[in-house]
Amino acid sequence: MDIETIAKKLNLEVRSASDRLKNNVTGGYTGDLLSDVMANSHEGDIWITRQVHQNIVAVATLKEHAGIILVNSCEPARDTLEKANQEKIPIMVSSLPAFELTGAIYNLLGKKD
Prior knowledge:
By secondary structure, this protein is of the alpha/beta class. It has one domain (3-108): 3-Layer(aba) Sandwich (Udp-n-acetylmuramoylalanyl-d-glutamate--2,6- Diaminopimelate Ligase, Chain: A, domain 1). The protein has helices at residues 3-9, 34-40, 55-63, 78-87, 98-108, and strands at residues 13-16, 27-30, 45-49, 67-70, 91-93. The protein has a five-stranded mixed β-sheet with strand order 1-5-4-3-2, with helices on both faces. α2 links the parallel β2 and β3 (45-49). α3 (55-63) packs parallel to α4 (78-87). It is globular. The two termini are 18 Å apart.
């Protein structure tokens, strides 16, 4: 499933790299500790976090994430958006808390048991 489909179904607000919404999402990872995300997330994941600083873009680029979703209506810092546009990493914002958003994306990706 691509980011654009997820964004539409979950009412996500796109903040950067809107030309990359066709990126394919193959899984997801929820976490705020950057070292944990680097160690345990995978290429193609959509990363769910409340972190807003530009280091999230560095991690997403390193891990080749499909994109980043900020929860609880958190807004990315200006330098984060600039870096995300340079690196072509979509950042979206959701009003949902991490728990609810993670479950919704899990269900959309068809990972239900």
